[in-house]
Amino acid sequence: MARHRWTDFARDAATQTRLALPIMGAQLALVGMGAADTIIVGRYSAHDLAAVAVGSSIWFPALLFLSGVLMAVTPHVARLYGGGRARELGAYLGNALWLGVVAGGLAAAALLLAERGLAVSGIDPGVCRSAAAYLAGVAAGMPAIGVFQVLRSLCEGLHDTRPILWVSLVGLAVDAPANYLLVFGGFGVPPLGALGCGIATGLAMWTMTGALWLYVRRAPAYTATGLFERRWRLRRAPTLHVLRVGLPIGLSLFFEVTLFAAITLLVAGLGTTVVAAHQIALNVSTVLFMVPLSLGMALTVRVGFARGGDDPAAARRCAANGMRLGGFLGLVQAGCMLVGAEYAVRLYTADPAVRDLAVSLIRLAAFFQLSDTLQVTAAGALRGYEATRSIMLITLPSYWLVGLGTGIWLALSDLPPGPLGVHGFWIGMLAGLSVAAALLAWRLRVVGRAAAA
Questions:
Q1: d(CA 430, CA 122)
Q2: DSSP code for 224
Q3: What is the pLDDT of residues 272-295, one digit of tens each?
């Protein structure tokens, strides 16, 4: 029996990893685009760098919310594909593409209106104007991202994740030189600063969408869906399905990213050394988070595919083995962070005070790697079951009540054990992620048993 379980685990882990590796590469390419933007604009001027930082704090949560809503397409595609019903996808996907355009247009409108909110935020007016210009450039690409996310979900649902990697690399290849040209100027183009960075980001979004569109349009594997054989239109039933499954995903991602933004704002009052160390540790954790996030997205496909094949036992086995793989990965990453913290920090700063504090935060972050990996893996499996409302209901109180509440108490309060400064916020994140991991794992077990029954 033990040997049989090990064989099942090895097979499921290999399949999940094979699906996840291209997704992981694509996520890292997107992180690379953000890093390129920061480096290029930072060399242009501190003013424009501040504007891009302010603008990114607005459009990135909007992007995650938009992408999360449209992630509802992935488990549905995987389920129909697993059940041999790919032909039924045409009308659903056409509807989803229209929904992506509409949702992207609404996100673009929100970014264009953000200048009014920035005007009353207390930020320097010049920075606000530059941030609004940057957001206008990014807004031009939001409808494209809506279409891109639907096409990406289609590729993932059909177990074809490699094109996502290649398209993301194409986006990175366009973003970096376009940023340099538009920010600094050249070849007849005036220097545009933050506005140029926003235009380059929007251009990269359209390039990625166009490249993935051409692939899906021409690859033989996608003709079976009938996507391009019928007129696309918005219909009530598939739209409600995407919103019912996708809105909780989008809100869950929004809760998480805004939690880290809120903590960063609270840390800002503790001094520049603390802010710099916190930002370094957060950046290292974010890069490492791409690995379990990709495994969770692959697990969504695996569970959805098994459900489509009317094999609830296989779906439950995939979810359980995915959690085991996530636990193993979390322990490995924790060990790497404990051992390699000093080496990683040297890449960011030579300031001894910042370096020492950042190393202590990264080593503290190592202790929530297991919780973070397990919670994102369990959420991925629950998305495969399309049980997304429970993710939202669990993550909101876990992140904001337990995580932020504990962090404020430990970091700023005079109550025992006394104000711990920035370390208190990171301990609060550990508490919030641990509660989320435990509750999501419990919910996954309940949902899996109910489906098997």
A1: 32
A2: G
A3: 788 778 878 887 888 888 889 899
Burial 33-70, CB ≥16 within 10 A → b, else e? bbebbbebbeebeeebbbbbbbbbebbebbbbbbbbbb
What's the CA dihedral at 179, 181, 183, 189 to 10 degrees?
A: -140
Residue 195 has φ and ψ, to the nearest 5°, of -60, -45
Instruction: Find the DSSP H helices in 310-367.
Output: 312-346, 352-366
Within the chain, what is the greatest distance between any pair of CA atoms? 71
Rg (CA), the chain: 22
C-alpha 257/C-alpha 251 separation (Å) is 10
What pLDDT, on the 0 to 100 scale, is given for residue 1? Answer: 47
Residues of the chain with pLDDT under 70: 1-4, 119-123, 227, 229-232, 268, 418
Position 214 scores a pLDDT of 92
CA quadruple 80, 83, 88, 90: dihedral sign: positive
Contact 126, 191 (CB under 8 A): no
Is the N-terminal amide bond of 417 cis, ω within 30° of 0?
yes
Burial class (CB in 10 A: 0-12, 13-18, 19+), 236: exposed
Instruction: Report the number of secondary-structure helices (H) and strands (E) in the chain.
Output: 17, 0
**H/E element, 103:** helix 89-112
The pLDDT value given to residue 151: 92
In angstroms, rounded to a whole number, what is the distance separating the alpha carbons of residues 399 and 383?
Answer: 19
Side-chain half-sphere of 292: how many Cα atoms within 13 Å? 29
